[in-house]
Specification:
Blueprint (H helix, E strand, L loop, with lengths): L15 H8 L5 H14 L6 E6 L8 H4 L3 E8 L2 H11 L9 H10 L7 H14 E6 L16 E7 L9 H12 L2 E12 L4 E4 L2 E4 L5 H10 L7 E10 L5 E10 L4 H9 L8 H10 E4 L1
Parallel strand pairs: 1-2, 1-4, 2-3, 4-5, 8-10
Antiparallel strand pairs: 5-9, 6-7, 8-9
Helix pairs in contact: 2-5, 5-6, 8-10
The structure holds S-adenosylmethionine (SAM).
């Protein structure tokens, strides 16, 4: 168990290389499930448009299933030191992290029984050709991207970002709302979160986590205007608590949130979902739990 008092939200201490080594040397259970979920969620994309991956960290693996469904891919993160690793991979720098095992897993999820090296390379090539912007992003800001003039996106994907950036649930809710602001009305939001986790390890450091679950996530999405019938939620057991700090994850995809202005008006009018209300809607109607 990671002592909560030792956990921090100060990303000055973030070590991207250590994070890659610790979490991404192999396809761990959480990423196997996350990539499988993204592949299935991509089935909801009718026409390839502009996709934003927000809080991408030093990674590119979530881009692998998105590339065939995106005309253009933009990535954003809070830290330049993370984007450096992404750029390194994009320009095929020899020191870049190796994501081939992740490409193989994505192709398998897409139904390729035994992906060839060539298919993996082709997918990586497709990702490189689709990524057109690497941006700085801060979920704490209403205008969360360093280039706000880019407009809203057809698809926004944000995995292990909002809840992994703060130990405070009120801040987490604000982060999720600000990330959702990047989504065009009728667009698709795909997200993943560490479930009921208060802190996760990166090297010798412990980073604070918002300790959220599927009911919290359903609640914030409903508040933002997502209709229950448009939300797909799954909980997966991953059994990584002893090593990394969590033993389950929540995966969600949602389409067609209300235009943000209307959601803001509803919130301002005090029509916030009552405590318990999202739980009932979230758990009974929507949530699939599997291990
Ligand atoms: C646990 S990492 C997840 C990275 C990647 N999405 C993944 O799945 O491995 C959390 C990420 O949140 C980013 N982050 C921290 N504070 C943030 C903020 N205020 N706004 C946006 N991203 C933030 C960090 O830079 C880091 O890349």
């Amino acid at each position: 168990m990671i002592p909560i008092e030792a956990a921090m939200s100060d990303f000055d201490q973030w070590d991207a290389a250590q994070y890659l080594q610790q979490y991404y040397r192999h396809v761990e259970a959480d990423e196997a499930a996350t990539l499988d979920f993204i592949v299935r969620a991509c089935g909801r994309i009718a026409t390839p448009g502009r996709t934003l991956v927000f809080g991408v960290g030093p990674t590119v693996h979530h881009l692998l299933p998105l590339a065939p469904h995106s005309r253009e891919l933009h990535v954003a993160d809070y830290l330049e030191s993370n984007l450096l690793h992404v750029r390194r991979w994009l320009r095929r720098d020899g020191s870049a992290h190796d994501w081939r095992e992740f490409g193989r897993h994505v192709l398998k999820c897409e139904g390729v029984r035994v992906p060839s090296e060539r298919q993996i390379v082709e997918r990586e090539h497709l990702v490189r050709s689709r990524v057109t912007r690497c941006l700085r992003g801060d979920a704490g800001l209403r205008s969360a991207l360093s280039a706000p003039s880019l407009g809203r996106y057809d698809v926004v994907v944000s995995c292990y970002c909002a809840e992994s950036a703060t130990g405070d649930q009120a801040i987490w809710r604000r982060y999720v709302r600000n990330i959702l602001r990047q989504l065009a009305p009728g667009g698709l939001f795909i997200t993943a979160a560490l479930r009921r986790c208060r802190a996760y390890r990166v090297g010798p450091c412990r980073f604070a986590c918002a300790n959220v679950d599927e009911h919290d996530l359903a609640g914030v999405l409903f508040e933002a205007g997502v209709e229950p019938g448009q939300l797909q939620l799954e909980v997966r057991t991953v059994d990584l608590r002893a090593r990394l700090g969590y033993d389950s994850i929540v995966l969600a995809s949602a389409t067609a949130p209300l235009p943000q202005e209307r959601a803001d008006r509803l919130l301002a009018a005090g029509r916030r979902a009552r405590p318990g209300e999202p739980s009932r809607r979230g758990s009974d109607a929507i949530c699939a739990v599997s291990s």
